[in-house]
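Progress report, Aim 2. The chain analyzed during this reporting quarter is listed below.
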Amino acid sequence: MPKDKERRKYPRIVDDRISLKVKSDTFDSTISQSLNISASGVYCKVDKELPLMSRVKIILMLPLETRHAEKVIKIDTDGVVVREHPVIENGKILHYDIAIFFDNLSAKDREIIKEYIENKAK
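Predicted structure tokens for the chain:
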């Protein structure tokens, strides 16, 4: 397989306008900021370390712009932390970047995310 072949099932976009809350049994983040999103997961910043394979609850707040106003669609789902690393500056951990795979996203919510991505990619 060529190196540049995209392996992802769904396209992703860089988008830091999505607010989200990430919770687990031992972790309750403040509102986090997305770095990128696809219909299969989100890459985001959190303020505390979350171990790999941690099961989490996620609340996504997608900002949708219409002709007349901006509204926010709330999506509640479950996920699994599949990547995590600290962001360090001058020897101090600023935050953690984590990738979360959506493992319980409804078909309706997946379509909402796909439409959001398609609209942003235009």
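The chain has one domain: 12-121. Residues 107-121 form the longest helix (15 residues). These observations will guide the mutagenesis work planned for the next reporting period.
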